[in-house]
Write the structure tokens for this entry.
Amino acid sequence: MAAGETVAPRKVNETAAVEAGLDALDSAPAGPARTPVRQILRERVLPPVAAAVLVLLAWQVAYEAEVKPHYLLPSPADVWRALSDQWYEGTLFSTVWTSMQRGALGFAASVVIGTALGLLLGAVRWLRTGIGPVLSGLQSLPSVAWVPAAVVWFGLTDATIYAVVLLGAVPSITNGLLAGVDQVPPLYLRAGRVLGATGPARVRHVLLPAALPGYLAGLKQGWAFSWRSLMAAELIASSPELGLGLGQLLENARTYQDMALVLATIGEILVVGIAVDLLLFAPLERRVLRSRGLAGTRS
Amino acid sequence: MSETVLRAGAPARTVLVAEAEDPAVRLTHVSKWFDTAGGRQTVLDDIGLTVGRGEFVCVLGASGCGKSTLLNLVAGLDRPSTGTIDVPGERRPALMFQDHALFPWLTAGRNVELALRLRGVPRRDRPEEARRLLELVRLKDAYGKRVHELSGGMRQRVALARALAQEGDVLLMDEPFAALDAITRDVLHEELTRIWTENNLTVLFVTHNVREAVRLGQRVVLLSSRPGRIAREWAAADTPEAALTSLVTDALREEIRRHGRR
């Protein structure tokens, strides 16, 4: 070893120097510069705003032309007035809040159940062969179909609403997780086994994080289904004992033949659905994909 | 050449150990076959191989010789059809793949820390130990980097650091440098030799590259293909590197030629 010790250090330093050079040359360059605000405004904000303005214009024209009588087709201004009335009466916020609370709670419960179910089906093959097709089938069954059954079982209570939300969202979340798990590269599972990740550690440190992109897609769809199911349930299961949600408001407006309020409420339902997707799921998804080098700097 | 000096210095210590009673890996009459639609396919046939503690053994073979299967068996990812595999150490063998197999949802440092965690290292010691291991592969600045931000060679070094974090009794390497360019591979050979010498590792290294096998290994074991059998074995200390390379190349070419004649 004596010879090795005298010769090695210089050689080792030389190796280190070459290596440092290689690392510097090979490392990925920093991402492109931030897109200027003006460009973002022009390319990403302007087109949807222009589209919305066009729709409003067409609507106004249809109103002026009296395609339908005014009480059937109110003007954009009428709908705006219905909205601001709600705002001044203080019901706008409380109605939206009631529905969002239900949606959030129902979705959270769906996530817990759907995830547990997905993990179970992923682990037990015969169970998946048995229940998997049923779950896929349930995904294409509109959850509004469950409302009559739920009303008979649970009456006009919150239980009815949550049952419908769960039946709508759980299959999406479970299927999303299963799809995510199916797409995990086998190499990660083998690497995990070599590292000693077995049982719960395997699920926590390898399987779930590896399946996260598919799982997130499932969650996103699960939210959309939760929200739709909730509206269907609120629309039908409408009673004074239940708090006033957007669906119930819609049903009430219909009974009063208040078309402006009907349209305003539809707008509110739409805005909540889009806002949650845009403010919660889109950034989450972008972050996950970007941190794994799976997405460009712009999606 | 200094690596020759390093190589020549080390074998005397370990080849003796290899023959002693205390091997790090011992395969006895190991065979592996798969039942396919076309009938039984024997991948490994009656393999007997012992790796002594502190030894660096290279298994060399053309495609279809069951090199990866062999490592999977030693790593416990698969079971032999017959025969026994003894890995007497307390810690499971560490395995490094050709494709780094780092987890893309973790940073380089966290990948190493996960291995430490699964080994049972307490939380407070992990960051420091991970940094030490990354420094060992000369990547101390890569701690917070994502896998996709690293070059191929850097990824393999992080994978090496992660494998070392396991402190397995044996380090199994499945063509870890095959996908790298020549210069990077060269540098990594030197690094691996250095780390092996400094840390008293036991390495079972699988490759199809003769130069790599001769350069790294104290022993080179040639596997025949379909089925994989041990065809020849050389001790690197006996022959100068260049001469051994051509000797082993000839033997490998002969093995490959046999398949053309059938």
About this structure: Residues 98 and 176 of chain B are 4 Å apart (CA to CA).
